[in-house]
Amino acid sequence: MSLAAALLSCALAAFMTFAGAPKVAGHPKTALMAQHLRVPTELLRFVGLTETVAAIGLLVGIFVTWSGVAAALVVVALMLGGAACHLRVKDGFTAAAPALVSAATAAGVMILHIAGN
């Protein structure tokens, strides 16, 4: 694995942890976000759990390639879904941008993992 892939994996894992942990913990802002996005609170809690597990997979992926690829693929799917939710409620590109940047970063991690093997 390249240094770039390891650094991107760590950065993305940190972002996924900071994004997912409050959702899993049921932070009060999660309910407000769910209401704004017009999705069930339970769905956001599941998304948070998936983000947190993906973060672990990204870190394991530093040593086990398939784990990093799988976790990055999950992040791409989650973040594209998140961006779509923001655009669906007309939040605009600014609200969707962090999810889109995360999806692009995860795609880069996948490419670096695959190219490194």
Automatic annotation (TrEMBL):
It is found in: Membrane. InterPro entries: DoxX (IPR032808). It is a multi-pass membrane protein. Residues 1-19 form the signal peptide. Pfam families: DoxX_2. One of its GO terms (cellular component) is membrane. Keywords: Membrane, Signal, Transmembrane, Transmembrane helix. The chain crosses the membrane at residues 53-80, 92-115. This is DoxX family protein. It comes from Streptomyces cadmiisoli. The lineage of its organism: Bacteria, Bacillati, Actinomycetota, Actinomycetes, Kitasatosporales.
